[in-house]
Design brief:
Elements: E1 9-12, E2 17-24, E3 27-34, E4 43-53, E5 58-68, E6 73-75, E7 79-84, E8 89-90, E9 92-99, E10 107-111, E11 116-121, E12 126-131, E13 140-150, E14 159-167, E15 175-177, E16 187-189, E17 195-200, E18 203-208, E19 214-219, E20 228-232, E21 238-248, E22 254-264, E23 269-272, E24 284-290, E25 293-298, E26 303-304, E27 310-312, E28 324-327, E29 332-337, E30 342-350, E31 358-367, E32 377-379, E33 385-388, E34 395-398, E35 403-405, E36 416-422, E37 428-434, E38 438-444, E39 450-457, E40 463-467, E41 472-477, E42 482-487
Parallel strand pairs: 7-14
Antiparallel strand pairs: 1-4, 2-3, 4-5, 6-9, 7-8, 9-12, 10-13, 11-12, 13-14, 15-42, 16-17, 17-18, 18-19, 20-21, 21-22, 22-23, 24-25, 25-26, 26-27, 28-29, 29-30, 30-31, 32-33, 33-34, 34-35, 36-37, 37-38, 38-39, 40-41, 41-42
Length: 489
């Protein structure tokens, strides 16, 4: 405080603003604190502080705005896949239940599907979901929704988990799909259905990864322009995709613009995002869930809402990202930075009522000289274990400050790791090239103990995509335009 007379007074018009006046030889200070226990509900709270100067007889008003985010319940995986074939099955999965509350929220889980059994563990904030195929009369794909709700009404917003059960009396067999072509970043996997989405020219095609059947093919709203940069929402409801349109401006000069679309994965319909509102400059690369709220991350680490309105961007430190992975039980993601052979680590905060809904904070990066041209990596659910395609150390642990390289998970110097993935239960899967056999696929549990290893295909490394819940590996041979669908344990 400056230029204020002795005996000044400060008062607030709301009880949750706590004011403390201090006056000494160092000057006059007003300390402002917030008593969260006196705040009910959420939204943008507005208050005022009146500062009265008895010497001048004047009162100055200070406006205070406080953005109080809603408390949300969510699963660390907002979509789950279950599979029931003749001998191949994924029938039980346990997920973390998350909230953005500073205190524990008592919750319950319910579903109308009689083929799902739910077991809640409030003490450890986990939910075990068991699929019961016997309660489903027909083969095919069956959908359900699990609702997460607070046991104390109004203490949090409810969340949902979308669930799919694929049932068939036969196992998946080897299938080769010919004449498969896709555009730049034009392939993506569904998080719950046994589907892969392929952007081929101006069409978005949906293939069944077990049968190989073409499920759907939809033409873009803008014909004859390639659809690119497919990014699927983690809840399986929709995907983002874009194209470049060439047009003539009012002066008949040729220009280009990027069109962004949402594609509904239930109705298979495109809807264009209003370009007048889009403020991102680069293409989406991931949709990251933060305690139930989706945040779009672009190739240069812009952060936006689902309408692609940018909320935050550290442009000064931006770089172009191609390889990215997230931690499903933490508001953390990491991204490969080739210039420094490092995985840059970021934590995100989200507040729906703040002027900038998203903020990103840089955390200690993981630097490794073997990360030159890193092709893939994955994070454990809690973000503290990093699995990578690495010639010297395939997994590293993080203690909050330091990364420790823990070496290779195999002992054969001739084996070359090609890719890595993980599943809901924090098991990791390494796809490796063995010169004497071909491509092998090895599963490790969360303690890095090998569970099994098998030969997938007698071939050299190609592009690979993994769907552990459906026991499928997708292998793409660009030279022959063949997509190979293969099974594993």
């Amino acid at each position: 405080m400056s230029n204020i007379g002795a005996g000044w007074q400060a008062t607030a018009n709301v009880p949750w603003l706590i004011l403390t006046q201090q006056s000494d030889e160092n000057g006059d200070v007003l300390l402002i604190d917030i008593d969260r226990s006196l705040i009910t509900g959420w939204g943008l709270m507005t208050a005022s502080i009146a500062i009265y100067d008895p010497v001048s007889g004047t009162t100055k008003i200070i406006i205070v705005e406080l953005a109080v985010d809603a408390i949300r319940l969510a699963g660390n995986y907002p979509a789950l896949a279950f599979n029931s074939l003749a001998t191949q099955a994924t029938l039980v999965q346990t997920i973390d239940i998350l909230s953005n509350s500073e205190t524990a929220i008592a919750w319950q889980a319910t579903t109308e599907a009689n083929w799902l059994s739910l077991s809640a563990d409030n003490a450890n904030s986990t939910l075990t979901i068991t699929a019961i195929p016997a309660n489903v009369a027909t083969d095919g794909i069956h959908n359900a929704v699990i609702t997460l709700s607070p046991t104390t009404a109004g203490s949090a917003l409810s969340g949902t988990i979308n669930v799919t059960l694929n049932k068939d009396s036969t196992d998946g067999v080897d299938v080769d799909l010919s004449e498969i072509n896709f555009n730049t970043s034009g392939i993506a996997l569904d998080p719950m259905r046994p589907y892969v989405y392929i952007a081929d020219g101006d069409q978005l095609k949906t293939y069944h990864v077990i049968t190989g059947a073409l499920v759907n093919s939809t033409t873009s709203l803008l014909a004859n322009e390639d659809l690119t940069n497919v990014v699927v929402h983690p809840d399986g409801s929709m995907l983002l995709v874009s194209n470049i349109e060439t047009y003539l401006d009012e002066d008949e000069v040729e220009q280009t613009r990027v069109n962004h679309y949402q594609f509904d994965l239930n109705s298979y319909q495109f809807s264009q995002i209003d370009s007048e509102n889009v403020t991102i400059e680069y293409r989406p690369i991931m949709i990251k869930m933060i305690a139930g709220a989706p945040v779009v991350i672009t190739q240069t680490l812009e952060y936006a809402d689902m309408n692609l309105v940018r909320q935050y961007w550290d442009q000064e430190n931006a770089f172009f990202a191609s390889t990215i992975a997230q931690a499903n039980s933490a508001d953390v993601f990491m991204v490969y930075k080739q210039a420094t052979t490092s995985l840059e680590r970021f934590s995100l905060d989200y507040n729906a009522y703040a002027s900038e809904m998203v903020t990103a904070m840089s955390e200690p990066p993981y630097t490794n000289a073997a990360f030159t041209n890193l092709s893939g990596f994955a994070l454990s659910n809690d973000s503290n274990t990093v699995y990578s395609v690495n010639s010297t150390s395939e997994w590293a642990s993080f203690d909050g400050n330091t990364y420790t390289d823990n070496g290779l998970l195999h002992a054969d110097a001739n084996i070359q790791t090609a890719n890595v993935a993980k599943d809901v239960s924090d098991n990791s899967y390494f796809y490796r090239f063995d010169p004497t056999r071909g491509m092998t696929y090895t599963k490790y549990n969360a303690d890095q103990v090998e569970l099994w290893s098998e030969l997938i295909i007698a071939d050299s490394p190609k592009q690979q995509y993994f769907m552990p819940a459906y026991q499928r590996v997708l292998i793409y041979e660009a030279g022959t335009s063949v997509l190979k669908l293969r099974s594993h344990q």
